[in-house]
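User: Sequence recovery, please. Input:
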């Protein structure tokens, strides 16, 4: 610009201004020359400073990698660690873009920083890839494949706390369904559901429902492949349990809300229905003891020993109020309007009124089921496919032949409107209150024990553990259910559920209306007595070795 102005002055003849401007230009050129010379003298120092700064930046970034990024990676903060490693990688790559800094590349390579950062970022890339593979398997519903990937990842990178990286999926189901699930004390849904739990730390899984004992377990982590599915079998709420020993064979009896237990040594004990405390206990020594379930009749507790000794006890304290002698007993006792019936092994039916023998009724057949008292009569099943009805007033037996069979009666149970009879040739009879046939089914297999009725359904079981359901009014088939084992003594019914104690020690409770199993849990009971549903709607059953347990029968959710 100055030179252009000088040329303009020269053309205009303004020579004095031109000379002054030319002198100024010369002076400027001189000053610029001096400045350039001075700057060129500093260039080596400036470039050296730039290299020092770049080296310091790399050293600082590397220090952050070894300190901050390593700590973040071990703690499972993958993204945070990767950002620090990426910063060092970017600073190393920047050396290739500046000719002045290329000389630092060899120093970086000598120190192995490029391999260091590539290894760390490669590890993180691999972890992310495997996490995505596990997540994809989980989205497809293959929890086992996802668990294998998670376990492999943990084993390979054992130093990383993966509990801060991912949580494990766990499908929780239960019997019954609809139970509440808690993970480490926090609500996590109702069964069936999928919950998540951290890897590498103790995790407590609690599953519970109203009327059931809560099941609590600790999930195993860092050992093998993570657990992906859990099925919890909830047991009914146990009111109490007491040790009764191996010789209790008679079914427990409800005595005004308390529970009576008797054994083969002659011991009789009454347990408080609320807490299981011993109300009273008596030991009447007898060589063969008691196998038959006693009854309450005319204010007395009537207990029959195997050898025919009969005691009448005060139910309040167990004091003996009378003693009788009959023939050897067979089966449980029954009572109607204060009259007690005892079935003898010889086929006689002995009746008691109060503390006195009343009458002995010869049946002239071999009894195989009963005696039971229902619908104003005593009933006995025989080995010839017969049902004998005894009127408690006239005490006259009336023998009825069951249609189409002469097989032994294996089960005799009472319903609100009649009786259910099962026979050894696989027949089920539904009778009315007078003992007349309403319907029967044949060819049902090797039936075991008694049938039972819940609502509008009647059920019976075979020895393979298969339960068959029929319409109570018509006998039409209403489905089947696999129990998996033979029920001891057959089925019981209470309100809206069928109850069975199985040979393999499981307690099985089935809601026929909903078609769902409400209880399927091993009790571990070894005592030989059959389960009993008491008047309170509670279940007395053998559990945990030789214990008598009183538990609530779970009800259908209202």
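Assistant: Recovered sequence (558 residues):
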């Amino acid at each position: 610009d100055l030179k252009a102005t000088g040329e303009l002055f020269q053309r205009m003849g303004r020579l004095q201004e031109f000379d002054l401007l030319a002198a100024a230009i010369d002076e400027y050129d001189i000053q610029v020359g001096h400045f350039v010379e001075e700057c060129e003298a500093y260039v080596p120092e400036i470039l050296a400073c730039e290299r020092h700064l770049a080296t310091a930046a790399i050293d600082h970034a590397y220090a952050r990698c070894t300190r901050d990024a390593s700590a973040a990676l071990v703690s499972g903060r993958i993204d945070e660690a990767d950002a620090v490693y990426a910063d060092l990688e970017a600073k190393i790559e920047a050396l290739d873009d500046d000719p002045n800094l290329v000389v630092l590349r060899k120093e970086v390579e000598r120190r192995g920083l490029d391999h260091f950062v590539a290894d760390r970022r490669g590890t993180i890339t691999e972890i992310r890839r495997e996490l995505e593979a596990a997540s994809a398997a989980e989205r497809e519903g293959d929890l086992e494949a996802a668990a294998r990937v998670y376990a492999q990842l943990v084993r390979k990178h054992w130093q990383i706390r993966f509990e801060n990286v991912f949580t494990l999926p766990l499908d929780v189901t239960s019997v019954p369904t609809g139970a509440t699930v808690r993970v480490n004390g926090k609500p996590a849904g109702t069964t069936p559901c999928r919950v998540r739990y951290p890897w590498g730390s103790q995790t407590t899984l609690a599953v519970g429902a109203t009327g059931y004992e809560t099941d609590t377990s600790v999930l195993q982590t860092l050992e093998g492949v993570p657990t992906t599915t859990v099925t919890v079998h909830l047991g009914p709420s146990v009111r109490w349990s007491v040790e009764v020993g191996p010789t209790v064979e008679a079914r427990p009896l409800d005595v005004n809300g308390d529970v009576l237990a008797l054994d083969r040594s002659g011991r009789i004990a009454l347990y408080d229905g609320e807490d299981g405390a011993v109300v009273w206990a008596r030991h009447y020594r007898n060589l063969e003891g008691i196998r038959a379930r006693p009854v309450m009749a005319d204010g007395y507790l009537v207990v029959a020993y195997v050898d025919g000794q009969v005691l009448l006890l005060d139910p309040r304290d167990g004091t003996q109020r009378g003693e009788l002698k009959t023939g050897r007993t067979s089966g449980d006792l029954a009572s109607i309007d204060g009259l007690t019936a005892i079935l003898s092994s010889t086929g006689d039916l002995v009746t008691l009124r109060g503390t006195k023998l009343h009458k002995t009724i010869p049946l002239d057949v071999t009894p195989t089921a009963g005696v039971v008292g229902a619908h104003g009569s005593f009933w006995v099943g025989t080995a010839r496919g017969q049902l004998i009805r005894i009127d408690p007033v006239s005490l006259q037996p009336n023998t009825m032949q069951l249609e189409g069979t002469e097989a032994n009666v294996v089960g005799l149970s009472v319903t609100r409107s009649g009786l259910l009879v099962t026979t050894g040739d696989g027949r089920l009879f539904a009778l009315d209150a007078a003992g007349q046939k309403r319907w029967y089914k044949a060819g049902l297999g090797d039936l075991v024990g008694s049938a039972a009725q819940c609502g509008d359904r009647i059920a019976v079981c075979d020895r393979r553990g298969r339960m068959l359901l029929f319409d109570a009014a018509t006998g039409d088939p209403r489905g089947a259910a696999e129990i998996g084992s033979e029920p001891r003594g057959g089925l019981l019914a209470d309100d809206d559920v069928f109850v069975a104690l199985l040979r393999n020690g499981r307690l099985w409770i089935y809601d026929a209306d909903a078609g769902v199993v409400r209880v399927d849990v091993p009790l571990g009971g070894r005592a030989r007595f059959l389960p009993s549903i008491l008047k309170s709607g509670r279940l007395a059953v053998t559990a945990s070795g030789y214990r008598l347990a009183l538990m609530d029968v779970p009800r259908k959710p209202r």
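The longest helix spans residues 15-74.
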